[in-house]
UniProtKB/TrEMBL annotation:
PANTHER family: BLUE COPPER PROTEIN (PTHR33021), EARLY NODULIN-LIKE PROTEIN 20 (PTHR33021:SF262). Pfam families: Cu_bind_like (PF02298). Residues 21-121 form the Phytocyanin domain. Residues 1-20 form the signal peptide. Keywords: Signal. It comes from Brassica cretica (Mustard). This is Phytocyanin domain-containing protein. InterPro entries: Cupredoxin, Phytocyanin-like, Phytocyanin_dom.
Length: 166
């Protein structure tokens, strides 16, 4: 294993990545349509800030409007917050932890084409468990991901100095 490979592996260990998911609204490729229970679908999902909603639909018949709670409940399609509609295979990123409301205008909201999602904050990074087995007893050490990042950084500096300055 070369020096550059070791360096690259150590650098990758320090990267903390926030994951996001793509949720296909209604559960399929083209499910933004009447007669789909979007409430039931949303209740079986977990949405986090940074996640994406994918809407697949016939753009000649349907649209996607982000609205407030009152407009969602009453199916009011004027004074919307944002028109998500672009081409029939559209995405919307859920940036903040809060409730989001979407409806289809053109009368289809009254036929059930509406979606409410409650977005949660990103969960904290998981901790890393490293087993340590001393000669006398066996213990498990829990290392916080920040401590792991700091330890990896220090180790990287020592390896770098040993390889290039000794």
């Amino acid at each position: 294993m070369g020096i550059r490979t070791i360096w690259a592996l150590l650098m990758m260990m320090m990267i903390i990545e926030v994951e996001s998911s793509l949720h296909r609204v209604g559960g399929g490729k083209y499910n933004w349509k009447p007669d789909v229970n979007f409430s039931d679908w949303a209740n079986h999902q977990r949405f986090y800030s940074g996640d994406w909603l994918y809407f697949g639909f016939d753009r000649t018949r349907h649209n996607i409007l982000q609205v407030n709670k009152s407009s969602y409940e009453q199916c009011i399609d004027n004074d919307f917050i944002f028109n998500v509609t672009r081409g029939g295979r559209d995405v919307f990123q859920l940036l903040q932890p809060k409730p989001y409301y979407f409806i289809c205008g053109r009368g289809y909201c009254l036929k059930g084409m509406k979606l409410s999602v409650n977005v949660l904050p990103q969960p904290p990074p998981s901790t890393t468990t490293v087993p340590i087995i001393p000669a006398s007893t066996a213990n498990t050490l829990i290392i916080d991901s920040n401590a792991f990042t700091i330890a990896t950084t220090i180790l990287t500096v020592f390896i770098y100095k040993a390889l290039y300055f000794d």
